[in-house]
Amino acid sequence: MVRKFQKSDLELVMEIWLSGNEDAHPFISKEYWKSNFESVQEQLLEAEVYVFEADEVIKGFIGMQGNYIAGIFVKREFRRAGIGRQLLNYVKAGHSDLTLHVYQKNKAAVEFYRREGFCIISEEIESDTKEVNETMSWRQA
C-alpha cells in the first residue's frame, strides 16, 4: 500500500535513503552520503513523500518536489519486487509530466526509468561528486 509519509516514519525512511545511496552509488564515497544526511532529513520533512508499506513494514519511498522526483528508494531485501514501479505509478497518476536526475553510472536506475517511459534530455557533471548526472523526463501519453 502506498500512503503519505508521517513524521514517525522519518528514522526508517532515512535508513533506507542512506543504505540505498551507498548500494546504488559505489562510485561515490560513503562519507558523501553521511555528510548530507542531516540536510536531506530536513528537506524530507518539507517534501511530498509517499511510503510503500506492507505487513506494517515500510519497504520503500518516493520523494517529490512538484513534478520533480527527488528519489525512489527501496529497502535492500525488497528490491526487484515491483515496489519502485508501484511508487512511480502512484505519482504518475497525479502528474502529466515528471523529471528526475540519475547518475549515469547507476545503470540499473537508468534502465529502470527507461523501461518506465523516461528519456534522457540532458546531462551535466555534478560539482560535488564530479559524476555525470543525467536529467530524465516522462510525459503522460
* Rg of Cα set: 14 Å
Counting copies of identical and different chains, the oligomeric state is: single chain
Low-confidence residue ranges: none
Mean pLDDT: 95
- Main sheet attributes: strand count, strand direction, barrel closure: 7 strands, mixed
Strand content: 25-35%
Helix fraction, binned, reads: 25-40%
Number of strands: 7
* Widest sheet, order of strands: 1-2-3-4-5-7-6
Order of helices and strands: EHHEEEHEHEE
Structural class: alpha+beta
The backbone outline, from C-alpha atoms, is globular
Distance between the termini: 25 Å
**Number of DSSP helical runs:** 4
Any chance you could write out the topology, listing elements then pairs?
Elements lengths: L1 E3 L5 H15 L5 H17 L1 E7 L2 E9 L2 E7 L8 H10 L4 E7 L3 H9 L3 E7 L6 E8 L2
Parallel strand pairs: 4-5
Antiparallel strand pairs: 1-2, 2-3, 3-4, 5-7, 6-7
Helix pairs in contact: 1-2
Kindly describe this structure.
Helix content is 36%, strand content 34%. The protein is globular, with a radius of gyration of 14 Å. A hairpin with a 2-residue loop joins strand 3 (57-65) and strand 4 (68-74). The protein is of the alpha+beta class. It has a 7-stranded mixed beta sheet, sandwiched between helices. The protein contains 4 helices and 7 strands; from the N terminus they run E-H-H-E-E-E-H-E-H-E-E.
Entry summary:
The protein is an alpha+beta fold and 141 residues long. It has helices at residues 10-24, 30-46, 83-92, 107-115; strands spanning 2-4, 48-54, 57-65, 68-74, 97-103, 119-125, 132-139.
